[in-house]
Sequence to fold (230 residues):
Amino acid sequence: MKGSAERNLNRLADLFFAPFCCSCGDRAADNTLPFCKDCIKDFQVSLVKECPECGCKRSGCSCEKSSNTVFLFYYHTKGEKRIILNLKQNPDKRTARFLGKLLSEKVKREKSVGFDCVTYVPRSPKNVRIHGGDQSKLIAAGVAEGLGIPLKSLLVRREKRASDQKLLDAVERRKNVKNTFFPAKEAADYRRVLLVDDVTTTGSTIDECGDILREAGVKQVVKAVLARTP
Ligand SMILES: [Zn+2]
Ligand SMILES: [Zn+2]
Fold:
């Protein structure tokens, strides 16, 4: 009797807590993977494909070099965009940890810097409330775990951006970011920091956050994002 009750309970738990695919929302292929069988194939292609903008190999792409940011995949195809959009809508720890750890491997390969800590571009408090979490913080936690160094909240975000980024030109955007983020007191305690975000499109937010950290006393800031727009 006890056995079947337990089994039923497990089945119920499985139904509620079954891992889902971070791209299509279906059941994940297994407990360790946040992808279904179909989407993992697409994702593997995304990890190695050529730059959709210039057509160059990932390692030699000038778009990548000029952005000076380590990234895992391009924010380009429907599937790639869905991964990021789903993470924003539903900041799932398991998915963020998996992708964050993959990103940490890429950081290890591309940057020989010994970082003191990992930090992140924080989400607005309002969005954290609406979506129940900060996807960038969760990704950064996975990166920190992969690198074996602490995760620190070195940037503070004001509740509201001064203006909507989309409506501004490049110079105004930078100013706007400066009015939105400020450094935490302990930022000055760290020399080499890895700054993580989920996605970069214009790059102005993460670039400006890097500048804010440097102005606060951090000697070197390296940026890492899951996806970047080509
Ligand atoms: Zn899927
Ligand atoms: Zn390129």
Observations:
- The domain at 62-228 is CATH 3.40.50 (Rossmann fold).
- The chain has a mean pLDDT of 88.
